[in-house]
Amino acid sequence: MMDIKKMANKLARQHHSRNPFEIIKGLNIILVFVPLVGVKGFYQYFQRNNLIYIDDSLPYHEQVFVCAHELGHMMLHKKSNAIFMDTYTGFNTAKYEIEANKFAMELLVPDETLLEYQNFTIEQFSRMLGYSQELIKLKLK
Q1: What pLDDT tens digit does each residue of the chain (141 aa) get?
Q2: What phi and psi, each to the nearest 5 degrees, are found at residue 53?
Q3: Alpha helix positions (H), 4-121
């Protein structure tokens, strides 16, 4: 399996940013903010174009995560065109979703942050960074 951490860090280095909105500008990805129902966002490969759709009603912090997650789908699962079905109720355990979540966390939370706060519990990281404990656990794996 590809090294998700290496891939995310390489992308951040190439684009001098960990902000997925900055990164996708440099990758010619079409970003569409639309009202979505039942999903927060999805990635589509259509007529040789990469498109990322994000629910325009999400708070900015969540839009950033969804964008990073969808970028993960593009980098890892381009051929599968799986739609990100992140519901508000639970944690989607499908393999692709976990890989895209891992990619997003590797992109958004550099190892330096973890080292700086190495005495933090998962709960403390979750509160400080604004991501669920499940996502923090993926990053710490």
Answers
A1: 469 999 999 999 999 999 999 999 989 899 999 999 888 999 888 888 999 999 999 999 999 999 999 999 999 877 664 444 444 434 444 788 899 999 999 999 999 998 998 899 999 999 999 999 999 999 988
A2: -105, 135
A3: 4-15, 20-26, 60-77, 95-108, 111-116
Rounded to an integer, what distance in angstroms lies between the CA atom of residue 115 and that of residue 135? 17
For residue 134, which amino acid is it? E
| DSSP 8-state symbol, 121 | -
Is the full-model pTM beyond 0.85? Answer: yes
CA distance 55 to 116: 33
Q: Distance between CA atoms of 20 and 110, rounded to whole angstroms?
A: 13
Sequence length of the chain is 141
